[in-house]
Amino acid sequence: YRHARHRGADMTASFEAVDNVIRVRDTNGAVVFDTGTPMPHIAQVITATLSHSFLASATSRVVRSLGQTPAVTSGCRELQYICNQEYICRSVYVCRQEYQCTRDPWTGQTTCGFVTVCGNEQQCGYENVCGNEWIDVAGYETFESARVEAREHAQTYTLGTLAAGTNPDFLLVLLTASRTRAGSQQDYGSFISAIPAGETICANGSTVLETAFQPNGDPWLSRILSVFLEGDTVRAEFNHSNRQYTSAKAHSATSCLSYPSGFAPRDDTRSDWTVSFEVYAGKFTI
Fold first, then answer.
1. d(CA 249, CA 153)
2. Three-class SS of residue 74?
3. Distance between CA atoms of 158 and 229, rounded to whole angstroms?
4. Exposed site from 118, 169, 182, 282, fewest CB < 10 Å?
5. Spatial separation of the C-alpha atoms in residues 44 and 283, rounded to whole Å
């Protein structure tokens, strides 16, 4: 069967059905619809909602540098036994033998001899003075940073099972994701996510949920969501990967007795997600 509409001498469109094949042509004669070519259609739809936690990687602390604080600013004091040469004056009671002569006014005779004379007199001089004194001393200072240990982890969930014999040619995945808790690093705060909260996005293949970067711009952590078909089963895999990372931000602490340790706050890398899926299993038919 063929049908054509004309306006004057110009063909505006055509429709034809031959041997169970339908074709539609535009005004230029080009085929715009042809049931003889493979046509996509949706064979089955699977919906599911998952909650997943990317658990925190192990963390530790690393010493960046050690040093000392000056005695004048450290606030540290130490009791020390110290001896110093000091010029000291004191009053001393002294007795001396003196040769004295006395004249008796009655007889007119003079008597001479040694007599003992005592009294206080001031004596000065340098002396070695020792004792315990509080002395300003240098303190100890440590700079520490947080370190995240390397970790690889994947967890797979089943979203649903297709009817036997479906054998889809493609999957179209729509998802809505919400991050209820964000992992973070001390250098830049919360991990970066390009997923718009509460909005439906197309997520065919793999989708990066979160990323963290080093100060030079290279990524050191990534969290990826993948949806794939395994037999007749549709699965979602949450994959975490991070290399060892030491924060560029250093924290300092001081002590008067020894180098302090174990004070730098650790990074919290855990993230929680809730994801709703709409998976369309499609086929091409003729």
1. 27
2. helix
3. 10
4. 118
5. 10
